[in-house]
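Protein data sheet
==================
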Amino acid sequence: MIMKNATRAKLKAGKAAIGIRLDFSSPYVVESLTGIGFDFVYFDLEHGPSSEESCQDMFRAAEIVGLTPLVRVSSYDPGYVDRFLDSGAMGIIFPHCNTKQDAEAAVRAVKYPPQGERGAGGRPLALSGMPIADYIREANQETMVITMIEEMEALKNLPEILAVEGLDVLWIGRMDLSVSSGIPGKLNDPKIQDAVKRIISEGNAAGKVVGVGAVSADRPEQIGEFISQGARFFSLDTTAILRSAARNILQNLSTKVS
């Protein structure tokens, strides 16, 4: 039996999915998210120090609390990607997807033949107890391919990227998009807002789920704004949530103890 990807199922049903980003290693933090209501947790190995080995324990913690474990990798190399999938990741987030060739490489790295080139093996297969042909068929259905649109080059090639079969989510990296546009950090600039609206509109028209990144923990209502535009995949940052919560607690205390 293979673990079902509840996040993918939710998106397939037309609903929005909200997860949490972790850029450090802590199975305990993952476990502490039980019952809160997040759909997935993603481990950021592009911008964080987590290792393949530490991810295994966090995958197990995610499985225990019912969160879909995803990994944001730093490379499209199939051998590198395969090690996370074989340890229990149910989806891979590929940064800087700028061309049709990038998108095709992402699909090839995640999917078994005939859709891709992933090699058979690893913990999920061993624990499934399934004939390998059945496992491959179900794994190809349950594993997610998420590509990040975060550079101006990707906007130029957007129609070709959207034509690639096997992409589950196009995730807009607004911060890097602002850097690529020469206006770093100005996420409310009309240039960035127009780009976001275009990606959402064209993505939805192509039958793709579109997500928006860099949602502030201090302004979670932004998620509702992006949902109204047609986006359905979001995450909040663990460190930002901790800082926001601590700041709010101290501000509330200061009015009572001063």
